[in-house]
Amino acid sequence: MALQTEPFEISITDSYYALSLPIAIIQPFLDKNLRRVKCKAFFEGKHLEFHAALQKRNGSYYMMFGKRYQKELGIFPNDYFQLQFFEDKSKYGAEMPEELDAVFKSDFEAFEIFESFTDGKKRGIIYMIARYKNSQTRIDKALLVCENLKRGIRNNPDLVKSF
Predict the structure, then answer these.
(1) Mean pLDDT, residues 111-130 taken together
(2) The pLDDT of residue 62
(3) Distance CA 58, CA 120 (A)
(4) Cα 92 → chain centroid
(5) Exposure winner among 12, 74, 104, 145, fewest CB in 10 A?
(6) Which ranges constitute the DSSP H helices of the chain?
(7) Residues in CB range of 48: below 8 A, 6 or more apart
(8) Which residues contact 61 (CB under 8 A, 6 or more apart)?
């Protein structure tokens, strides 16, 4: 069975949108050397699912919880909300957009280039495509990414630009 926590209460106490994580909550993940988790956040009847990294700074663990997530849930600094962690079973530590996956399946050369990247760079490309709300835009950008990868372009922001 996949590892998961019970929902727990937390608030944003850091000006950098970081959540200070209780060690007792995340210890089972650390024991299994799992640094990436799938998260569910709950606030006033709304919920949000996302992927995150458990990061260590000055002996404490934290994770980022950016403005986009706060806005989506209607959370302000010092609001308390519920958070729950699940073992991340995704291949890349993020959900691959179905449009990007389909384009990679049709363009093996671009997919091989993508697979040669570090996990963080792969996630950056995935997030770059996933941020588009319109499916057709995700398809168009995924096609552009593949063409640019084959042209030798490696800078993420440039991957979605026409040259």
Answers:
(1) 96
(2) 93
(3) 22
(4) 9
(5) 74
(6) 23-31, 67-73, 98-106, 108-115, 119-130, 135-150, 156-159
(7) 40, 41, 69, 72, 73
(8) 20, 21, 23, 26, 30, 54, 55
Q: Residue 3 has which token pair?
A: 């590892």
| pLDDT band, very low/low/confident/very high, at 128 (cuts 50, 70, 90) | very high
Residue type, 3: L
Residue 14 pLDDT exceeds 70: no
Overall pTM surpassing 0.85 (yes/no): no
Confidence band for 15, pLDDT divided at 50, 70 and 90: low
Domains and CATH numbers, the chain: 8-87 (2.40.30.100), 98-153 (no CATH)
Structure tokens at 88: 């991340």
Calculate mean pLDDT across residues 129-146.
95
What is the pLDDT averaged over residues 14-19?
76
Q: Are 14 and 62 in contact (CB under 8 A)?
A: yes
Amino acid at 33: N
